[in-house]
Amino acid sequence: MDRNILGRLAAAVRDMDSEAVVALVDDALEIGITPAEIIHDGLARGMEEAGVLFEKKEYFIPEILLCADAMQAGLAVLTPHLVHDEGKEGTTIVIGVVEGDIHDIGKNLVKMMLEVAGYQVIDLGRDVPAPAFVEAVRETQARYVCLSTLMSTTMQQMENVIEQLLAEKLPYQLKIMVGGGPVSQAYADRIGASYAENAIGAVKLIRYLQKESGN
Hints:
Elements: H1 4-14, H2 18-30, H3 35-55, H4 61-78, E1 92-97, H5 105-116, E2 120-123, H6 130-140, E3 144-148, H7 155-167, E4 175-179, H8 185-191, E5 194-195, H9 199-213
Parallel strand pairs: 1-2, 1-3, 3-4, 4-5
Helix pairs in contact: 1-2, 1-3, 2-4, 3-4, 3-5, 5-9, 6-7
């Protein structure tokens, strides 16, 4: 099995080559690499490499957007091939980027990985006001909420969402997870949330919380 294909896939995302990304995702599926591996070790890795270039000021916003387009092209190919784990179809997770932030690449990766793992994900999108999270939880009876932001200036919105959710006094314990570039374990601890560093970590965290709570 040609595992190097994932490295080439990551490079294609980093190099903004959507056509190559689509072809490499097809090839990876053909040789039996799982969608989860393709996302984590190929597509997500490519975006991480692009992020490093952005930090070095070798890439700018237009390049990052093109990388994101290439990643999305790969995700579109993967969608029909996603296999859901059994026994998790009843678990609903609400996810969104908090108000004031329109950066949703990380959120989209987490959503995809959760869907690969078999969860039902209600995606509220980006720039989501706190009341929208509350309404989604009320309507779906979701027991898990994922909040994302890439901007330190909008981290306060995570606290606002949590305060409004807790004010609902739900008849069950709601688990709230936070993540994104400026977010840390220490910050999550301070605002009463759980923390995941990346998309794979988010799946592991929810599985841990499920085991801990029994639902």
